[in-house]
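the two lines:
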Amino acid sequence: MTKNMEKSKSRSNLGVRSKPARQQATSGDASQPLKMVKNQNGGDVNTSDQTQNRLSIKPGKIDSISGPLVIAVDVEGLKLYDMVSVGYAKLMGEVIELRDNRAWVQVYEETSGLSVNEPVISLQKPLSVQLGPGMLTRFYDGIQRPLDTIFELSGTFIQKGISVPPLNQEKAWQFTAAKKVGDQVVAGDIIGQVPETSLITHYVMVPPGVEGKIIKIADGKYQIDQTVAVVVDDQQKEVPLKMYQYWPIRQGRPYQKKLQSNVPLTTGQRVLDTFFPILKGGTAATPGPFGSGKTVTQQQLAKWCDAQIIIYIGCGERGNEMTDVLKEFPHLKDPKSGKPLMERTVLIANTSNMPIAAREASIYTGITIAEYYRDMGYDVALMADSTSRWAEALREISGRLEEMPGEEGYPAYLAGRIAQFYERAGVVLCAGGGQSSEREEIKTEDSKQDQTAAKSSRPKKSTQLTKSRQGSVTVVGAVSPPGGDLSEPVSQSSLRVTKVYWALDSSLAYARHYPAIHWLQSYSLYSEEVDDYNRNNFDYEYPELRRKFMGMLQEEAKLQEIIRIVGMDSLSNQERILLETTKSLREDYLQQNAFDEVDTYTSKDKQLAMLRAIWGFYEACLGFAERNSERLVSDVLDMELKNELAKMKYVSEQELDKIVSLPKQFHDEVRRIEQAGEDGEPEKPPLHMSISHLDTDIDQANGGE
Amino acid sequence: MPALTWYTNITELYGPLLIVESVESPTYEELVTIELGDGSQRQGRVLEAHRGKAVVQVFGSTTGLDLEKTKVRFLGKTAQMSVTKQLLGRTLSGLGEVIDDGPAVIGEEERDINGSATNPFARKVPSDFIQTGISTIDVLNTLIRGQKLPIFSLSGLPHNKVAAQIARQATVVSHQQSESVSSRSSSSKSAADDFAIVFGAMGVTSAEAHYFRRELEDTGALGRSVLFLNQADDPVIERILLPRMALTTAEYLAFTHHMHVLVILTDMTNYANALREISAARKEIPGRRGYPGYMYTDLASLYERAGCVEGSDGSITQIPILTMPDDDKTHPIPDLTGYITEGQIAFARELHHKDMYPPVDVLASLSRLKVSEEKTRDDHHAMANQLFAAYAKGKEVRELAQILGEASLSVVDNQYLVFAKSFEERFICQGENENRQIFDSLQIGWELLKILPQTELKRIKPDIIAKYMK
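prediction for all of em together
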């Protein structure tokens, strides 16, 4: 890793005279430093003249060690959040506090075996990820070390201090230029493309902080470290461009502006798509006690949602779960393209037994990679399982720093960190322009900072904005509240900032109602936008049915209260029909088996057909009750044909006709029963409807036994 | 490396901790030897390393230590234990010392007891079905090789009996078995010599320790078992080391000698309490109920040492046993455990009172790992789901019947009531020595489902019902 970092630092200096990277890095020969770029947070993003400093920097010494926290003294040239190399084992660490000559360092690896007085060296840059082609299909740890390569190098167990470059250094990528010599480019502009996987084309962008005129660019096969283009800026400095760039993980990547999102993220999960939808660029939290199916829900989203890129972060969770994802995804096919899902996925795993500080970083590593693909114009979905483990890592480090604890021992800045993280989601107008050639006209920089602090002279035309790319990052964070108690700080802070709340309920899980998303507790603040979208782009009836059914589910809860007090007999026929319908809705629609080949994914067409079928049943029965007030409603409620509702979920997408015809069948069947009754056929004995288990569920959930 | 000098500048002694000053460069987690005034020696470990000062955790009792005469020597290595196959059949203390009457054990390899994090990339997805002969586990909460499946017990319940029964009966069903093949014969191979049990007892009473030892002896399993014993009156600090020793041994047997190791750890509640005690002594900021904030990570560093890895045929399956304080599932110990482990077998006091063995609370139990159906039978998942759903419904009807009276129940609800009762009596209940084959258990399931009308069996696909419902 150290060596790798060294290389990265020298990147701004090389290539122009086509010297090999390593050589120049060690020679300490710094050429034109890149100009400093202020990003949104005002930090220095792209410093360059560090390479020659490296040799002159004196190492400091370890002063004390306690768990993942090391205090170092007399380390030269340290800035807050800089990386350091700790001890003879060269463990990676990050400076989190500076006082006098002492630096508090959180170490990303196991610290046992470190001794006082071992050297600590500043790496002179914040914790960054290397962004470039080859990240998809890879499996990284919390600080972007590829676990597959580590496995080859160190076997079953992860060795301490192991250093592996994040991207494949040998592989040659086919680069196709999108710009030509003489073109004017700004940061974020696409200069070319690389086929990263069979699903995803990787767009090579001008890194933030660079703009100027292209003086050299050519198609061809390049390794990651080779220069694909050279840009000369207005101070006549030559800047070599490669297929990768670095970005510090704790800062959001720049973009032109945030947009209002209005396109739903389709997940193929009925309860989510229909009742609690999320928008592309939206945020959702899924708190739930253990065993309620958080991980399965997250994995289902990762498998089936219609984002183009998936970032899956296993943060402080089980090793076997990550392995499961890793082994399963290559075999799963994207429902649209038929290509393996792995080809659009980056996995980041910091399992619960891996070092805690790297767990803290894993969330940021993931979202930075997500933002990078967003900047290419892709819709990215990020799943973080689980943010509670990340918060616990914060708490542990905070405790070792002897900070004043806030609620439940969590640091006072917890809520702020959570909000910052979710705020990195959204739909944006990407930095740079589209692939149009009218780049010359844009003369300004492009970050959000520049937008807000824009000089009035800045020329900007709306026509150019429309030509720009849009990308989105959708964030779904799982929360694992201790004891399932949502009053704890992580759940509360998450719910304050996320727009969708999928409430996983243990009593539903006990009854094996999966996904155990409670329909009365969950909510989506995007419902209106999604309804609008569906009305305009999908089907007018879909949002209507959603509203009607949601109302019925609320009504059902009320009726069940009544039943518990006075029994079933007090219910009217209409109410009985409603209860029977919601029972079917719960069992045949809301329940979805993630492990069934067909049921695991339901297209929106099928969802609509299913909703119509259940509605058809309801209407047909209601009609019967209205026309035959003297007859027992159980005559129709127990009809044989009702079983078809239960079978709907197993009907494949190709045979949708079977479901589409159901409303008519119900209608006909009810007519038939009606006539048979009129013809004097003996009526069946009254069969009370069985009372659903919903009422006791709610009791358990509220009573908190 | 500095020479191994004795440091005598001990400034503080409290609880299990010792603070020594004027130390040149202590190493974090380094082992130390402590010599008392009378020449006897104890061991310890560096908990915090500062310039010129080290906080040392003393293994064993701190009785007899003083500030004047006690000396400390730093060994320059972290806690290790020597492992060898010769450990099989032996009994060790929480410090890894042989405490049976046999000869000393000469190790083949020194291993760091903390282990290293398993690379998730190196893991194999566990999928081999372990038949425990207990219906509630085999059908509903299947135990898989490489899984960590704790037992959430309550004080006074027969968790030790169940654990012993699992240890006795556990076999792996062959992959391409057909229904006619008895799983017993196909699994006899794996049970023979590549199967081992590592048993770690933390803070148990001597009666419990004897029980397990006798159980293993009686069934002839002692020869392939390693016992680690820390009794209730042994030093608390050894409870922290014991599971790490046990798991280091298990890793050695599983991944070096390709054995299938079943690790039973009892009682994790004692372990967590020991952790809390040490944390309090270090004056750390307490988390929930006084347990340290890092307890999740600490427990994970134990539980995550279960699994199967590439390049080894062996596996580590963990069954940690914990007793839920005050029968409270949201207590930090079961709660954090549940978040790490792949499911749980929960016990219910109510069933125990009804004299049902094993008292498995079916609805609160869960196994996250799915056995692939080729390894059991194609009706397994659906059957499990249906039994869960039907029993959940049955129990609710039972509650309802208590309020409204059975007379007010519908026909179907009455059938559920009968189902729930039969399910408890015939499916959950079984003998302590009854080893039910998986197909027998499934058969009981099908017979029970006949109580209900077929329209209620929504979790099972019609073709499966047609195939097995006879």
